[in-house]
Amino acid sequence: MRERVIDGLLAAAVALPFAVGLGVGPGGPDAEVAFAFRDPAVVESSGLVARDGLVLTTNDSGDTGRVFAVDPATGRTVGVTTWSQDPVDVEALAPAGGPGARPGEVWVGDIGDNPGERTSVSVTRVAVGRGALGAAGTTYELVYPDGGQDAETLLVEPRSGRLMVASKAFLGGTLYRAPARLSPDAPNRLEPVGSVLSIATDGAFFPDGRHLVVRGYGGAVVYAWPSMEEVADLDLPTQQQGEGIAVDEDGRVLLSSEGQYAEVLELDLPADVRAVVDGTGADRADRADRAGREAGRDPDLVTETDTAELTLITGWMLGGALAVLGLLVGLVVLLLRRR
C-alpha cells in the first residue's frame, strides 16, 4: 500500500508544475459542452475516439479492459466491449485506420508505466459499437528502443494505418512509430520519429492526415506530419483532470476529463489553425519562413524575440523543476518521520 501511495505522490509532484503553468482561467479558449457522460462506470476517461456517430472511451488504470461506446446526443453508454479482465495499465485509444481497416474497430493501448519499468507494452485491436461485445481481439507487443517509457498517447496515421506512441515525459516526450507490419508472435520494435510536448496525455490525427494534435493537462500542440514541425500552440479550457482528446471525421476536436459524469468539451480552434488543418491555410512554419524571406531576414537566424521566448521557457521549466524538488524533499522528510 505504501508503495502505491508513494507512486501516486511522485506522479502528482511531476504533473503539478505543468498543471499550474498551463491551466486556463475564465478567459481561456472558446469551448462548449458537447455532452456529459451519464454512465457512473465511466470514472476516469483517459483515451477518447470519435467515429461513426459514437464517442468511445476507456477508463484509466484500475479498471478491467473495457471500451465504452457513448451516444453523444444523450451522453448515455450504448455499448461496452470487454476485451480483457486484467490489463496492466490501459491509458489510450486510437481509431483503427489505414488500408484494409474495418469500420467499428479501435486500438486499445495498455501503455501506462509510471515507474518506467515495463520491458514491453501492448496494443490490442478490438471491435466496438452498440450492444454488449466480448472480443479478445489481437494483441501486439511493443518494445521501446531506449528502455521503459511511461505513455498515455496512442495515434494512428490515417493513410498508412501505422501505430504511434508518444511518451509522457517531464522535459518533453518522444513520438515513436511501430513497424508497418505488426507481428502477434514477436516483440515489435518502436522507432523514434519526433518530439512532442511535455507530459503528453493523448493525441489524434486530423482528417487530412497531414496534421496531428497532442495534448497535456492544460495545453496542446498541433504538429505537421511527417515533419513534426509545430503549427500552433493551443491553450485548453480548465477541466478537472483533462486527459483525452479526439478529432472526428469532420475535424471537430473533443476534450474529455477524468471524473464521474465528466463533461466532454468541443474546442473551437482559432481561425488560422482551423484553416491550416482544413487545408485552406499555410502552416505557421511556412508563414514565418515566407515573411522572413520577404523582409530579407535569414529564417534560421535567432532574433531577440526568439531569445526572449527561450528565456521565458527556460525560466518556466526551472521553476517547475524547483517545485518538484521541493515536493520530493517534503515527501522524503515525511517518510523519515513516520519511520
Q: How is this structure best described in words?
A:
- By secondary structure, the protein is α+β, with helices and mostly antiparallel strands.
- It has a single domain, classed as Neuraminidase (6 Propeller), CATH 2.120.10.30.
- It is built from four helices and 22 strands.
- The strands form five sheets. Strands 2-3-4-5-9 form a five-stranded mixed sheet, with no helix packed on it. A five-stranded mixed sheet has the order 6-7-8-10-14, with no helix packed on it.
- Strand 16 and strand 17 form a beta hairpin.
- Helix 1 packs antiparallel against helix 4.
- The N terminus is likely disordered.
The profile of the biggest β sheet is:
5 strands, mixed
Trace the largest sheet across and list its strands.
2-3-4-5-9
Return the CATH class.
Answer: Mainly Beta
Rounded to an integer in angstroms, the radius of gyration calculated over CA atoms is 20 Å
Enumerate the spans where pLDDT stays under 50 for 5 or more consecutive residues: 1-27, 297-314
- For the record, what is the CATH homologous superfamily label? TolB, C-terminal domain
Bulk shape = globular
- Please tally the helical runs, counting DSSP H or I stretches of 4 or more residues: 4
CATH architecture: 6 Propeller
- In CATH, the topology is named Neuraminidase
What helical percentage do the residues reach? 10-25%
N-to-C SSE string, H for helix and E for strand:
HEEEEEEEEEEEEEEEEEEEEEEHHH
Number of domains: 1
Class from helix and strand fractions? alpha+beta
